[in-house]
Design a protein that fits this description.
Strand content: 15-25%
Helix content: 40-55%
Low-confidence stretches: none
Shape: elongated
Number of helices: 34
Largest sheet: 8 strands, mixed
Mean pLDDT: 85
Structural class: alpha+beta
Length: about 900
């Protein structure tokens, strides 16, 4: 592809075989349309719903549940004469759970792929071209390379094009380059081939808005070959990698499935050796599948994520993809855009220097009459105005002139009153070629005041005193070194206006022999709360990286003020980045904290380089150019106020206040959600692994099946489900932001959790087996023990007691998982939903056993008061055991900490 920005206009016309006056012929345009295709983005083929469903259910844990559905349905049909419709409850419930999980996953996926659709609507449906010497309106899809396009204020650029002639022409390219100020165009510029997009002042780009002037441009690239087309291509090809939560849940699912399969093989083997009926072995297999897979896990995880979403909305963070909630909690790198996120997206005057001042002053120090009049002169030489938008007034104008208006309003100036006293009688408008603007106002005494503002090197003030000019250059450079945009003001007083017959002579007479007045320094300042949020993120082990399309000097100044740049970190530009290979970038990525003048490709490379280092990246953005990187990042964060629809559609989260602080707040909530998911895993696994152990033990020992599949389903879905849902409302330790993020590959069971799970699982299994043994083999009245065999004793009573103890221990276990501290140190007010849900489930499980008719339908029987008391006593054992271990573990931790402090004192 040719570097159109580094070619003369005539060379571009020759290369494109077109004419600067007449454009292409209609026949040639048709020929090129056949060659290059329509000027639109290629559409990605959408995946059919059936394939999405099949992709979701290929997970091994889901397959095991579906096999359980099939087997239990077969058993229900075989045993229809005994159980009737009640036999269908089990397969129907399991199938509904699988269907709900699949529906939730597909709904999230289908709602996420909207970025390309939003990108497609950026082009206006029509534009003007010149063909065969005639100006005509055509559909933008019909534009071909070589077309002569006519652009004016308010038009959307239909294709990437080389400017060949223009007048006061400026284009808003913020969505593509990230620069907040419109880009003034100059057709006579010749640039280096590797010039960044933001510096290509002789080019216009598809999808950008013309904000002033008019121009004729030659279409250089159309469709997928435009800069916007490249972004569309990135959006199509960039794949979102699995979130840490998905990876951990996948590993957990595989581990549970492996346990289930291994257990099934053992059960089948033992059953065959014992010459048991195949139907009975099928029943055992179904029971084991129900026991092994925590059916409520995915539903409760989804509810936890949803609860996190609701809490984040209150903090101005709108989550578009549920998995992003937990991923935020694992975030270790935040790649943040500068403009509007770390800064206020509002140009402000920060520094002033008036001729004669000893040193520059800040905007807050400008209180003298001389400084206030100096600012009023700037206001007189600007065109920013207030316009009514419904019930409110909106400041309209160039960002620089809006900054001038704002500071004058803050200082008490009245624009209308000023315009009345100093009526404007003439104006020489700003242009990119002149880089200055002049106005003439009539003073109350009848004389005229000529005021010129603009670039220091362009304003024609009196420069006879070389020492004075040198002093001005020194002051100007101090402003520029701090990345301030410098505006110069000069003026003079005249008794009468020059003759206006010759416009050029009139302008020259006005803009000559001016008197230098002073400088103002303008910048988009950092948000007041951003520095504290960056420091807070740093204490949580999260590094903030600035990525911007702005110049390196400006980015460096803001980064230094915010505390992003440390002693050993550097700044790199897009041009320098382009020279590095992917391997070189990955090896040096940790050195850089500021990336300036970057392209969409650069942003993706930066994100991927950090990901290669094992980091979990959050990436912010608002422009179309940010969309590919937002999609590639682990968490794409779009701006809600200034963000484009393309960026929002490609993101995982939208900030409704465009504030960096909101990201850090969202990370805090994400960590809380992850903490609660760990608690849930701990809660459910102890119960489910206990169920597997008691089933295996019952078969191996010859005691028989301790609980039926329906009993297990009641425990897994209801007794575990309701308290598990209440865990979503748990609030973690306030010190949660004082530790490092979890590593991407770190297990749910890190920090000794696996040891705790094993410990509690063994105790829970033992008490359930004891309950089953007592109920089946022990006569409470006489104390006699029946012959221990699968077909002896009271099987129904044994299963009833086992069910009750299993359900109750599972319910009480929720209090153990809440904290490593004692349950007696947590207040009832901490989570009243948990207490209500737990009490309700405790009573419900008792009622299922106690109410005649219901208990028999569930293959249970009535129990004596002694059985109830034994069941209650056994239920308390795991909780008391956990309390003892917590006490002992905390004692050991305190001893270790005490020894560490003493050793520090000695040393």
């Amino acid at each position: 592809m040719a570097n159109w920005h580094s070619m003369e206009s005539d060379a571009v016309l020759r290369e494109q075989a077109t004419d600067a006056k007449n454009g292409l012929t209609a026949a040639e345009a048709e020929k090129r349309r056949a060659q290059y295709g329509l000027n639109k983005f290629a559409e990605k083929k959408k995946e059919k719903l059936i394939f999405q469903i099949l992709r979701q259910i290929k997970d091994i844990a889901v397959i095991i549940l579906l096999i359980a559905v099939g087997l239990s349905l077969a058993l229900a049909i075989v045993e229809w004469h005994e159980y009737g419709a009640m036999g269908l409850v089990e397969p129907v419930v399991i199938f509904i759970i699988v269907a709900m999980n699949t529906t939730l996953a597909i709904t999230q996926e289908r709602g996420a792929e909207r970025a390309l659709e939003a990108l497609a609507v950026l082009n206006s449906p029509h534009c003007y071209v010149i063909r065969d010497g005639v100006k005509m309106q055509v559909d933008t899809t019909e534009i071909v390379p070589g077309d002569l396009i006519v652009l004016k204020t308010g038009d959307l650029v239909p294709a990437d094009a080389r400017v060949i002639e223009c007048e006061s022409f400026a284009v808003d390219e913020a969505s593509l380059t990230g620069e907040s100020e419109p880009s003034s165009k100059n057709p006579d510029l010749l640039l280096q081939p590797d010039a960044p997009l933001g510096d290509r002042k002789n080019m216009v780009f598809s999808g950008c808005l013309v904000v002033s002037g008019h121009a004729r441009v030659i279409a250089a690239s159309t469709g997928m070959n435009t800069q916007m087309g490249k972004i569309a291509s990135y959006l199509q090809t960039t794949k979102k990698r699995k979130t840490p939560l998905q990876m951990r849940l996948d590993k957990l699912g595989k581990a549970i499935s492996a346990i289930a399969v291994a257990s099934a093989i053992v059960l089948f083997g033992i059953g065959l050796l014992q010459r048991q009926e195949v139907l009975h072995l099928m029943l055992l297999t179904v029971t084991l599948a129900v026991a092994a897979v925590p059916e409520a896990l995915m539903l409760i995880v989804t509810l936890m994520l949803t609860h996190g979403v609701k809490k984040m909305v209150k903090k101005n963070a709108l989550i578009r993809k549920l998995q992003a909630v937990e991923t935020l909690g694992s975030t270790s790198i935040i790649c943040s855009d500068k403009t509007g996120t770390l800064t206020q997206n509002k140009m402000s005057i920060r520094r002033l220097w008036l001729s004669g001042d000893e040193k520059p002053i800040t905007d807050t120090e400008a209180t003298s009459d001389e400084h206030l009049w100096f600012l009023k002169e700037f206001l007189l030489c600007s065109n920013a105005t207030f316009e009514h938008d419904g019930d409110k007034e909106v400041l309209i104008g160039d960002p620089t002139e809006k900054a001038i208006m704002r500071i004058n309003l803050e200082k008490g100036a009245d624009r209308k009153e000023l315009d009345t006293q100093y009526g404007r009688v003439a104006e020489i408008p700003f242009s990119s070629a002149r880089k200055m603007m002049t106005v003439v106002v009539k003073k109350p005494d009848g004389k005229y005041l000529v005021i010129t503002k603009g670039a220091f090197d362009r304003i024609p003030f009196n420069k006879k005193d070389a020492n004075f000019v040198q002093r001005l250059e020194e002051v100007h450079n101090t402003f520029a070194e701090d990345a301030l945009r410098v505006l110069t003001l000069a003026s003079k007083e005249i008794d009468k206006l020059p003759a206006q017959g010759n416009r050029e002579a009139f302008e020259k007479a006005l803009e000559s022999d001016l008197t230098f007045q002073g400088f103002i320094g303008i910048i988009d300042p950092p948000r007041p709360e951003a520095a504290a949020s960056i420091a807070r993120a740093k204490s949580a082990g999260i590094r903030t990286i600035m990525i911007t399309g702005d110049h390196a000097a400006t980015a460096t100044a803001i980064a230094r003020e915010l505390g992003i740049i440390a002693a050993k970190e550097g700044v790199i530009t897009g041009q320098e980045l382009e020279k590095l290979t992917d391997v070189e970038l990955a090896n040096s990525i940790e050195f850089y904290s500021v990336y300036a003048r970057v392209t969409p490709e650069d942003k993706i490379r930066i994100v991927q380089a950090w990901q290669m280092k094992g980091a979990i990246c959050a990436m912010t953005g608002d422009g179309v150019n940010d969309a590919p990187a937002l999609k590639a990042a682990d968490v794409g964060v779009a701006m809600g106020i200034n963000g484009t629809e393309v960026a929002k559609s490609a993101s995982d989260m939208v900030l409704t206040d465009d504030n960096f602080t909101t990201i850090v707040d969202a990370v805090t909530e994400g960590r809380n959600v992850f903490s609660n998911i760990r608690k849930l895993i701990y809660f459910l696994l102890v119960c489910n692994i206990s169920e597997i152990l008691i089933m295996l033990f019952g078969q191996v020992s010859g005691w028989g099946i301790p609980v039926t599949p329906m009993m297990l389903l009641l425990v897994n879905v209801i007794a575990d489900g309701i308290p598990g849902m209440a865990l979503a409302r748990e609030q973690s330790d306030k010190r949660i932001m004082n530790r490092k993020p979890f590593d991407r590959n770190e297990s749910f069971f890190s920090g000794g959790l696996m040891q705790v799970i094993i410990r509690q699982t063994i105790v829970c299994s033992i008490v359930v087996l004891v309950a089953f043994f007592i109920g089946k083999f022990v006569d409470i009245q006489t104390g006699e023990v029946a012959h221990i065999a699968a077909d002896s004793g009271n099987q129904t009573l044994g299963q009833t007691m086992a069910f009750l103890v299993l359900a109750w221990t599972s319910i009480l276990h929720v209090f153990t998982v809440r904290s490593r501290r004692s349950i007696f140190r947590r207040s009832l007010k901490d989570n009243h939903f948990l207490w209500i849900g737990t009490l309700a489930m405790f009573v419900l499980m008792a009622l299922l056993v106690a109410i005649p008719g219901i208990n028999t339908a569930l293959k249970m029987t009535d129990m004596s008061i002694y059985h109830w008391l034994i069941a209650l006593g056994l239920t308390l054992v795991p909780t008391l055991f956990a309390e003892y271990n917590k006490l002992w573990d905390n004692y050991k931790l305190k001893s270790i900490e005490k020894n560490r402090v003493e050793q520090q004192k000695i040393s």
